[in-house]
Every structure is written in structure tokens, then in C-alpha cells.
Amino acid sequence: MIQKIKVNYYIIINIIIEKAAPPPKKKKKKKKEPPFIVPDWAKDLNVLIEKVNNMKKYVGIYKDLGLDEEFKNKAKEQLVRFGKEVPFRKEEEETLRKLEEERAAKKAKKKKK
User: Fold this and answer.
1) In terms of Cα–Cα distance, which of 49, 69, 45, 46 is closest to 59?
2) What integer pLDDT is reported at residue 83 of this predicted model?
3) DSSP 3-state assignment of 64?
4) Sign of the dihedral defined by the CA atoms of residues 45, 77, 38, 56, in that order
5) What CA–CA distance (Å, rounded) separates 33 from 2?
């Protein structure tokens, strides 16, 4: 009889624990934003800088061109983004250039030996 009570006691405790502890919540997956597609004209850094300078000029004379405030606001948002993009791309190109120089120097050393 004592064993029967112990078994029932353990069963009751397990049932209580299962009811008391809610199942863990599933984490909601965040929607991934699609990557920004770089236009063909923006792949070359010099062309990109030229386009940014042209856009700055257009923003300066948007009223003379008959453009509205919405164009000006969107263009300024893009100019801010490209203002960050240009130095980043310059730094990236400089890093790649240095890596290529180091590789060439290592190859030259191996050929001499």
C-alpha cells in the first residue's frame, strides 16, 4: 500500500509540474530585408562619385528644374547613404590593393629563393 501511494504521489507531482510550466514559446523569426541591389553605374567608384556630385547639384537647383520637395527629400536620404558608401568603398579598395601588393611581394621572395 505504501508503494502504491508513492507511485500515485509521483504521478500527481508530474501532472502538476506539466500543467504549471507552460511550454516554451517559439521565437518569432524576423523578416529579412532584401539586400540593397547596387545599380550597374554604382559599381565603379569614380562613376559613383561623379553621380553623387551631380545629385548634389540637382538638389541645390531642384526648384529651378521644376522638381518638388519629395524629390529633394528622397535625394538627400540617398546622398546620406552614398556619403557613407563612398568612404567605405575607398577603404575597401585600398585594403584589396594592399593585399595584392603583399601577395606579389611574397611571390617575388619565393622566386628569389
Assistant:
1) 69
2) 86
3) coil
4) negative
5) 63
Compute the distance between CA of residue 6 and CA of residue 110 in angstroms, rounded to an integer: 79
Can you give the residue ranges of every domain in the chain? 26-112
In single-letter form, the type of residue at position 44 comes to D
Q: Residue type for 55, please?
A: M
The CA distance from 27 to 30, in Å, is: 9
The pLDDT, as a whole number, for residue 102 is 93
Helices (H), 21-68: 45-60
pLDDT at 101: 94
Sign of CA dihedral 48, 51, 53, 59: negative
pLDDT given for residue 96 in this prediction: 92
- Residue 43, φ and ψ in degrees, nearest 5: -75, -30
Give Cα 15 distance to the centre of its chain. Answer: 47
Could you list the mean pLDDT of each consecutive 10-residue stretch along the chain, which spans 113 residues?
Answer: 51 59 68 69 83 86 83 86 86 92 89 74
Cell triple for 3: 508503494
